[in-house]
Specification:
With 275 residues, the protein is of the alpha+beta class. The protein contains 2 helices and 8 strands; from the N terminus they run H-E-E-H-E-E-E-E-E-E. 19% of the residues lie in helices and 23% in strands.
């Protein structure tokens, strides 16, 4: 449909008739008052705040989602390399051994993988299977690994086998640590043995309360008699999993073990990341 032309005051174009009235000029608008310096500054400030807000949102998305996916991919590669270096487990449910002394694991070099941490309670929730590596520095934890405090016990030993992991970002390794309850199992897979621990307690402490990873937690002067496992991660009483002002600590005790040559824990039988 053609656009309608604005009507003129004469019936003929002005250049054809001398008596026609001139075109009506458009209505004039009052001149705008110049913006004050304060208004200009406030406008610029608003634009800056919007830009900063978008950058912050983008950074959070990158850190929580993209960065975590990359970390999990690295962790899965490390698990695959570890599994390729050891005999395949017999894929039948093995009997939990509770009598005698469990096998132990020799310490490895800094950064090396010597096991896999498996938390059945976390299945389909987060990066529930993660490599266990020697050390707790950022280059280890940032790759979605469970980092071993090198001065603590090894799996199966009397004392406290202590591990650290990120709560949020970099794989969200220990994100659901608050879901663990008394009696929940934590499984440690090594080259020759499956170690099965059960959760006994948890606590929230300040970052400098390092005696929670002592051989006897909170009693470093005592001689250990139990075979314990401790998980440590960030926490905040106000921000929960998003804060890092405190540490969430979960303690567990060894209830038994299995030889890989005889089978595997029923809880992980059929678990695709293990099979």
């Amino acid at each position: 449909m053609p656009h309608k032309l604005c009507p003129m005051t004469a019936t003929d174009p002005a250049w054809m008739t001398t008596g026609s009235a001139p075109l009506v000029p458009p209505a004039s608008h009052p001149a705008r008052k110049p913006r004050s310096a304060i208004a200009i500054i406030l406008g610029l400030l608003g634009e800056v705040l919007i830009t900063v807000g978008l950058l912050v949102i983008g950074f959070v998305v990158w850190q929580v989602w993209w960065q975590s996916n990359q970390a999990v991919a690295v962790a899965n590669e490390q698990i695959a390399e570890f599994h390729a270096s050891i005999p395949e487990p017999v894929k039948v449910a093995a009997t939990l051994q509770t009598e005698g002394e469990p096998p132990t694991v020799e310490p490895v070099g800094y950064g090396e993988t010597f096991g896999v941490l498996i938390v059945p309670k976390w299945y389909e929730k987060t990066n529930n299977n993660m490599p266990i590596r020697s050390g707790t520095t950022p280059e280890i934890l940032d790759q979605a690994a469970a980092g071993h405090y090198v001065d603590t016990a090894m799996p199966g030993e009397v004392g406290n086998f202590a591990l650290a992991g990120h709560r949020r970002t970099h794989g969200n390794s220990f994100r659901y640590i608050n879901d663990l309850e008394f009696g929940d199992q934590i499984i440690v897979e090594t080259a020759h043995t499956w170690y099965v621990y059960e959760v006994t307690s948890h606590r929230i402490v300040l970052p400098n309360e390092i005696d929670v990873i002592a051989p006897v937690p909170s009693s470093p002067e005592e001689k250990p008699t139990k075979r314990m496992l401790t998980l440590t991660t960030c926490h905040s009483p106000t921000l929960g999993e998003w804060g890092n002002s405190h540490r969430w600590i979960t303690h567990a005790e060894l209830v038994g073990w299995m030889d890989r040559a005889e089978g595997m824990p029923e809880q992980v039988l059929g678990e695709v990341e293990i099979d």
